[in-house]
């Protein structure tokens, strides 16, 4: 089987309704994408923004609420004086309005325009639904929105807490999705969910065990053993620790045979 994680994450296990043409008012849909890499799209077409002005847009997308100019400037440039930070913010907002006029609304407070959609918010909604008791995956929506962590190549002090929170949420949601798909014998989708977690959290033991269960259910005990042994070597090499007792017992049981 080819790795189900590889490829364009926008392809999806289930496709969302096509909203890229326009909203109900006929206005073009503007999307801010912060899962994986940063991107702004208008009617499905990417708009290039310099990194310097991506930062205020990303902050507003993650915060999901209007913030004062001083709050935004202080978060983005904590080492600058208030006056210098506010001056830089005014300049960035002017550049944003020139490049994407309908992206940001600003006054005493700054926020994304009301019609702008953010992939992070939809991913959180899907994850929250998945984690409800007795719930299955929300059908008809882009489950692949859970594939990526939040702005994976960004290292910003103001972003770190949200990055950790989203990673925690998506890992738990994807594990539940994997168990649901495994119970339904939908092995490809169960493996996809497991590998989506492993791609961003390679040391997560619960996901490694779940992936082994998927392989065993498919009748691929040898593949499960290989994955677990390789994981054990990874932990010893990188962290100097052994996997938990459950993993070690499963390795022993598979080697012992039926």
Descriptive report:
With 258 residues, the chain is α+β, with helices and mostly antiparallel strands. It folds into 2 domains: 1-184, Winged helix-like DNA-binding domain superfamily/Winged helix DNA-binding domain (Arc Repressor Mutant, subunit A); 202-258, no CATH class. Helices cover 52% and strands 9% of the residues. The protein contains 9 helices and 7 strands; from the N terminus they run βββαβααβββαααααα. The strands form 2 sheets. A 4-stranded mixed β-sheet has the order 3-2-1-7. α8 (221-239) packs antiparallel against α9.
Task: List descriptors.
single chain, 258 residues, alpha+beta, Arc Repressor Mutant, subunit A, 2 domains, four-stranded mixed β-sheet, three-stranded antiparallel β-sheet, 9 helices, 9% strand, elongated, disordered N terminus
Major sheet attributes: 4 strands, mixed
**If you compute it from the alpha carbons, what radius of gyration comes out, rounded to the nearest whole angstrom?**
22 Å
Whole-number mean pLDDT? 86
CATH superfamily heading of the largest domain: Winged helix-like DNA-binding domain superfamily/Winged helix DNA-binding domain
Helix content: 40-55%
Please report the first level of CATH classification, the CATH class of the largest domain: Mainly Alpha
CATH architecture descriptor name of the largest domain: Orthogonal Bundle
Tally of distinct domains: 2
Q: Report the total helices.
A: 9
Number of strands: 7
Give the class from helix and strand content and strand pairing: alpha+beta
Spatial arrangement of strands, main beta sheet: 3-2-1-7
N- and C-termini, Cα separation = 25 Å
Low-confidence stretches: 1-21
**Helix/strand order:** EEEHEHHEEEHHHHHH
**CATH fold topology of the largest domain:** Arc Repressor Mutant, subunit A
Which term fits the overall shape? elongated
How much of the sequence lies in strands comes to: 5-15%
């Amino acid at each position: 089987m080819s790795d189900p994680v590889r490829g364009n994450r926008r392809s999806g296990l289930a496709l969302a309704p096509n909203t890229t043409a326009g909203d109900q008012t006929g206005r073009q849909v503007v999307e801010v994408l912060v899962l994986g890499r940063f991107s702004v799209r208008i009617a499905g077409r990417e708009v290039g923004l310099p990194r310097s002005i991506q930062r205020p847009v990303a902050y507003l997308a993650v915060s999901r609420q209007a913030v004062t100019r001083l709050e935004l400037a202080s978060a983005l440039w904590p080492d600058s004086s208030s006056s210098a930070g506010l001056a830089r913010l005014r300049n960035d907002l002017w550049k944003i309005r020139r490049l994407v006029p309908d992206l940001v609304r600003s006054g005493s407070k700054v926020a994304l325009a009301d019609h702008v959609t953010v992939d992070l918010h939809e991913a959180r909604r899907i994850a929250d639904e998945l984690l409800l008791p007795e719930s299955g995956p929300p059908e008809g929506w882009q489950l692949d929105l859970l594939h990526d962590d939040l702005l994976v190549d960004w290292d910003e002090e103001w972003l770190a807490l949200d990055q950790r929170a989203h990673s925690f949420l998506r890992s738990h949601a994807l594990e539940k999705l994997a168990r649901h798909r495994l119970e339904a014998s939908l092995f490809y989708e169960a493996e996809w969910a497991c590998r989506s977690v492993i791609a961003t959290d390679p040391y997560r033991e619960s996901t490694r065990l779940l992936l082994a269960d998927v392989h065993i259910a498919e009748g691929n005990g040898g593949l499960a053993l290989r994955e677990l042994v390789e994981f054990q070597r990874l932990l010893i090499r990188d962290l100097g620790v052994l996997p938990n007792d459950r993993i070690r017992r499963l390795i022993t049981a598979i080697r012992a045979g039926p």
